[in-house]
Amino acid sequence: MRNELRAAIGKFAGLQPDVMQGIDKMQNSAAATGHLDAKTHELIALAVAVTTRCDGCLSVHAEAAAKHGATREEIAEALGVAITLNTGAALVYSSRALDAFDNLPK
Questions:
Q1: d(CA 58, CA 80)
Q2: 8 A C-beta contact, residue 90 and residue 58
Q3: Is 58 exposed, middle or buried (0-12, 13-18, 19+ CB in 10 A)?
Q4: Residues of the chain with CATH 1.20.1290.10
Q5: CATH 1.20.1290.10 for the 37-105 domain, yes or no
Q6: What is the pLDDT of residue 3?
Q7: How distant is the alpha carbon of residue 61 from its chain centre?
């Protein structure tokens, strides 16, 4: 999947080089380690990839997390946080859905 994704992104980059240059700059800035180490960055990226449902991101960041020494247990813990946040978001939006229903014209 990573190879296919990289090839497809390469084709897009040929069509939109300025966009890709901006993305590269943003990714490089976010990847810079200041207060968090590279492994922690990748654990966060995996959790976010779950919440955004990005298969490509999962593939790329799982590989990067492993490269930076993340264990299966650490990844599972980060994913547990992602699951909790998705549940929390569903709860918040469920209350908003009920509010929308309650505010329909009678």
A1: 15
A2: no
A3: middle
A4: 37-105
A5: yes
A6: 85
A7: 9
Q: What is the C-alpha to C-alpha distance for residues 25 and 28, in angstroms, rounded to an integer?
A: 5
Nearest Cα residue to 85 out of 34, 48, 39: 48
Alpha-carbon gap, residue 69 to 95, rounded angstroms: 40
Residue 77: both structure tokens together:
């813990």
Other C-beta atoms closer than 10 Å to the C-beta of 21 total 11
pLDDT < 70 positions in the chain: none
Chain length of the chain = 106
According to DSSP, residue 70 is labeled: -
For residue 22, count other CB atoms closer than 10 A to its CB. 11
pLDDT score, position 33? 83
